[in-house]
Amino acid sequence: MKIEGNTFIVTGGLGGIGGAVAKAFLARGAKIALFDVLPTEKGALLAAEYHPTDAIYINVDIASSDSTKDGVEAVVEKLGNLKGVVHCAGIAVKRPWSNDVANSISDFIKMMNVNAIGTFIVNAHVADAINKPLNHPGNPAANGSKFWTTDEERGIIVNFSSAAAHGLYARTLCYGPSKVAVAGITRSMADFLGPSGIRVNSISPSIVQSNMTAGFSGYFNDDLLAHAAFPRKPVPVEEIVRTVLYLVENGYVNGEDIRVDSAWRLVTARIPGGPDPRELAPGLE
């Protein structure tokens, strides 16, 4: 998929990863719509710092189908030529450890709503918006076809899963399963949207220095040092951007989840006489 001259949505576009992705696309001649949850006026000011004309901000709750649909329609109206989305938005909720699993139910619901259901919602509305002007089945131009069938590349979707989705471990009781769901949605969407020429892939990073990880990255950095193969350090945002660009520009990569994790294998070490990992972790996700 060509970046120059096309329009893309970046969810979580005012965050560390989303912001870096948006700026990289803008530098390559794209128009960008930033979806995030900041108030509209503040978000618009930040978008103007990205680019005075080619970046716009729209306040969108990705867990709401109506909010997302309205946001996508606004992008089509204001910028046109929508070709895809880089879906960076997500949450990680932490609480103190306890012995009662039911204490995590509300966190599980919250993270599944945003990380998993939100991914499905974003993918669905973006794909439909890409397809809508292109001889929708039932239109006269579709020649009576009941379903999409095309050999042209119409769009690209890049989702964000996580290293926590691979080899789940106890510290991500809620977050990990929500990211497993993202990887599953990616594969299912790739299959479903293949006939309409839309590719869908995901990225599973390890620790990336961002606002979301700032409060607990020290603990996970130590774990990365102990259990990664190489390099044993957090992933620079620039490497995540390089991976996004690869997935967008290589038209033959589809239905894949790319791990950008230094071969980090997540473990919960319980060594007799050693510290209890539940005392060391900053919280249960």
Notable characteristics:
single chain; 8 helices; 3-oxoacyl-reductase; 14% strand; 7 strands; 285 residues; 7-stranded parallel β-sheet; Rossmann fold; alpha/beta
Can you give a write-up of this model?
There is one protein chain. With 285 residues, the chain is α/β, with parallel strands linked by helices. It has one domain: Rossmann fold (3-Layer(aba) Sandwich). It is built from eight helices and seven strands. The chain has a seven-stranded parallel β-sheet, with helices on both faces. Helix 1 links the parallel strand 1 and strand 2. The model has no long low-confidence stretch (mean pLDDT 92). This is 3-oxoacyl-reductase. It comes from Lipomyces orientalis.
Itemize the secondary structure elements and their pairings.
Blueprint: E1 7-11, H1 16-27, E2 31-36, H2 40-50, E3 55-59, H3 65-78, E4 82-87, H4 105-131, E5 155-160, H5 175-193, E6 198-205, H6 217-227, H7 237-249, E7 257-260, H8 277-280
Parallel strand pairs: 1-2, 1-4, 2-3, 4-5, 5-6, 6-7
